[in-house]
Amino acid sequence: MNGISTITWAAWVLSVAVQICLLATLLYRRQARRFPAFTIYAAGALLQSAALLAIYNHWGFDSLRAFYVSWGLQGLITILRLLAILELCRAVFRAYRGIWVVISRGLVLLIAVVTGCAMLFGSHKPGVRIVSADGAMGLALASAVVALFLLARYYRVQAREPIRAMAIGFFLYSCFLTLNDTILQTWLSGYGPLWNFLGIVAFIGTVLVWFWALRRPYPQEARAPKLLPASVYQALSPEVNLRLRALNDRLSRLTGQPVERP
DSSP letters of the chain? Predict the structure, then answer.
């Protein structure tokens, strides 16, 4: 293939194969209904891999046209990745609508601000700006996953499998993208082929993590529990549950959401 080494080509084929296995597992285990946004992201990433193979084969890896088209596709996939992470956040805090609304809005605002700053205050070269924005978005998404786990741990909200493993996969992949893009900004001309190869290998590892998490069927999540009256919590539950309920009610009022009562 024009501009792509044999080992990169082999890694790309392997990436497509493991993505097909992941998508087939989602459909076979009926996890697509439980994680529709993640399933759309997995399908989009598979289509992106196939499209990039065609683009680089037609225009060459070093083509300027291929550069902008490939990064355009990457932007769309990043949006799908954001939606998949938001889906995991919702799955963890689905019983607390106020908290979920603030998390979702805050994450979208964070992505917009970080990406905008990277584009506005980055290098004057358009290519470097795009790479900088992609790295900034990866860092923001990794930070969001960490914040999700910390908030869930603080309020003792259980993140059931496979949500935990899926979130860890997103965190590791986002961290690697940030590091890889940072190196690319420094050696933009000579690091491109290695950057591409390492990105494919990292994504293969991430897909394998997701595949391992989704390899077996999990019981459907129970319906969101109804919150008990405050008097019951005071008598039977630890104080952390009261704090979580109070926080959820406060955030529900701030965001205009109805406060759920038993």
Answer: -TT--HHHHHHHHHHHHHHHHHHHHHHHTT-TTT-HHHHHHHHHHHHHHHHHHHHHHHH-TT-HHHHHHHHHHHHHHHHHHHHHHHHHHHHHSTT-HHHHHHHHHHHHHHHHHHHHHHHHHS-SSHHHHHHHHHHHHHHHHHHHHHHHHHHHHHTT----TTHHHHHHHHHHHHHHHHHHHHHHHHSTTTSHHHHHHHHHHHHHHHHHHHHHHTSS--PPPPPPPPPPPHHHHHHHS-HHHHHHHHHHHHHHHHTTPPPP--
